């Protein structure tokens, strides 16, 4: 059964669809504030110049908000009820897909009721996008909460060109195959013309799942997808590693007040010789427990001394109503308490633990204050923190310890690479980072900074949109009536 095409709307030529809108509602005055994040920075110029729209959830249950303009963008809110938040967002998105796609670090739960809500809410997003897109518009759908939207949207609006970008890993088939709705999800994604992934390996895993589930031919990132009219179209599945707005971090890090704040942070920690730093959403994929274990053992074995070293761990609150996240918080806070209890002195603390989110200026000051950045994720689509640290190190110093299980590890090859499951290896890597001579730090940081500067988020979105434009070009060429070409030939 195919859905009916919507009435041709007069709408936006470029539409972004993501679970969250790029704004948050302030609790003080009910006004809208831009939420931090690279995606909006990357897409905003394109949205503003094309009179584009952004479809997404305003972040709170049970509120109905009419479309509104914000900084030259048309924002189109999609409401989620309390039930939708529980079943679609906390349930299927963050307790089924999230753990499954992160290699089942935490066991995924499979509930038919959650799946039904996922279908229902994806339909709502697809309809909202269909109603706001101008004829032949370009629509760019984002992330794992909305994997069914590309196909639903294609059914509603066969005229639009559809891109999808997957911000998290796509797992190997042996893991993916657990999903009871594994075929429907792949069919959903294949509704897009270009399906972007963080790593080459993710795109490969997806193509393999397509072959296994649907038997479609895939070749070098091109997938031949049968169309309802008996024809075939090509979908592209390819890696487009996402990045940050590197220039913004660079600029902030050069500000005297930010550098002053970095010195103030070190002073308030008691001016230790070495500051280690970790910053993550409080998520079980981030390997925070592994990091704490390695650090605790280094202290216990007197390879590190609390008088000389402090670990600052920022853990920003996340998905706090999902049981796995509550349990993680308890575990991490218990571990922090134990390590501090065992090793703190009256004047020095082993771990300064902060369960908060911070504005970007403060983050940059923390990056500048940190001699060693610890990114020990067990699985991570990209890990933008690693790139933010590098972009902030305008002084050319600092060492990045980076898990090989992040997308960033494919690019940031000058980091100290770790397998966070190997606690002894992680301890040695932390010591290597702490003891690294300054000239070696500078040599590595120079290469890292070049990479992040040259492959920033604008380059990422350009590469993706260029491929979408190619699809459009090919489609237009196919649609050109032969007579027109002949006429041209005759001159
Ligand atoms: C990851 C996901 C995003 C998500 C973000 C925050 O980066 O890829 O899609 O928005 O986490 O999670 P939240 O559940 O708060 O949206």
TrEMBL record:
GO biological processes: trehalose biosynthetic process
The entry lists its GO molecular-function terms as: alpha,alpha-trehalose-phosphate synthase (UDP-forming) activity
Q: What are the leading ranks of the lineage?
A: Bacteria, Bacillati, Actinomycetota, Actinomycetes, Micrococcales
Designated name of the protein:
Trehalose 6-phosphate synthase
Give the superkingdom in one word: Bacteria
User: What family name appears in the similarity comment?
Assistant: Belongs to the glycosyltransferase 20 family.
């Amino acid at each position: 059964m195919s859905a009916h095409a919507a009435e041709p709307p007069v709408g936006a030529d470029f539409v972004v669809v993501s679970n969250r809108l790029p704004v948050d509602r302030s609790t003080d005055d009910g006004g809208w504030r831009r939420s931090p994040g690279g995606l909006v920075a990357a897409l905003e110029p394109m949205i503003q110049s094309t009179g584009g729209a952004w479809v997404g959830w305003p972040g709170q249950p049970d509120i109905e908000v009419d479309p509104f303009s914000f900084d030259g963008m048309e924002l189109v809110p999609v409401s989620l009820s309390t039930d939708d938040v529980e079943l679609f967002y906390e349930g299927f998105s963050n307790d089924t897909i999230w753990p499954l796609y992160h290699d089942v670090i935490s066991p995924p739960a499979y509930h038919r009721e959650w799946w039904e809500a996922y279908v229902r809410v994806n339909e709502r997003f697809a309809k909202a996008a269909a109603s706001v897109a101008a004829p032949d518009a370009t629509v760019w759908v984002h992330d794992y909460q909305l994997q069914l939207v590309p196909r639903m949207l294609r059914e509603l609006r066969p005229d639009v060109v559809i891109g999808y970008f997957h911000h998290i890993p796509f797992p190997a088939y042996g893991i993916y195959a657990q999903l009871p709705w594994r075929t429907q999800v792949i069919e959903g994604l294949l509704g897009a013309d270009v399906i972007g992934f963080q790593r080459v390996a993710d795109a490969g895993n997806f193509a393999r799942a397509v072959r296994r589930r649907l038997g479609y031919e895939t070749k070098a990132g091109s997938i031949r997808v049968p169309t309802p009219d008996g024809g075939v179209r090509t979908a592209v599945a390819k890696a487009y590693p996402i990045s940050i707005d590197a220039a913004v971090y660079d600029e902030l890090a050069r500000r005297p007040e930010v550098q002053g704040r970095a010195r103030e942070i070190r002073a308030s920690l008691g001016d230790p010789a070495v500051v280690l730093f970790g910053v993550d959403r409080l998520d079980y994929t981030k390997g925070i427990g592994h990091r704490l274990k390695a650090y605790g053992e280094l202290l216990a074995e007197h390879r590190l001394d609390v008088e000389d070293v402090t670990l600052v761990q920022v853990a920003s609150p996340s998905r706090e109503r999902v049981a796995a996240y509550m349990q993680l918080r308890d575990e991490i806070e218990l571990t922090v308490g134990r390590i501090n209890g065992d090793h703190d002195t009256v004047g020095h603390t082993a771990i300064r633990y902060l369960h908060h989110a911070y504005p970007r200026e403060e983050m940059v000051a923390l990056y500048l204050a940190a001699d060693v950045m610890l990114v020990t994720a067990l699985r991570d689509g990209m890990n933008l923190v690693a790139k933010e640290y590098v972009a902030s190190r305008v002084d050319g110093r600092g060492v990045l310890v980076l898990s090989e299980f992040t997308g960033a590890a494919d690019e940031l090859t000058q980091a100290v690479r770790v397998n966070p499951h190997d606690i002894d290896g992680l301890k040695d890597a932390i010591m290597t980072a702490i003891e690294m001579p300054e000239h070696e730090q500078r040599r590595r940081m120079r290469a890292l900074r070049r990479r992040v500067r040259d492959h920033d988020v604008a380059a990422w979105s350009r590469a993706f949109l260029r491929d979408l434009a190619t699809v459009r070009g090919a489609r237009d060429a196919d649609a050109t009536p032969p007579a027109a070409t002949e006429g041209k030939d005759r001159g």
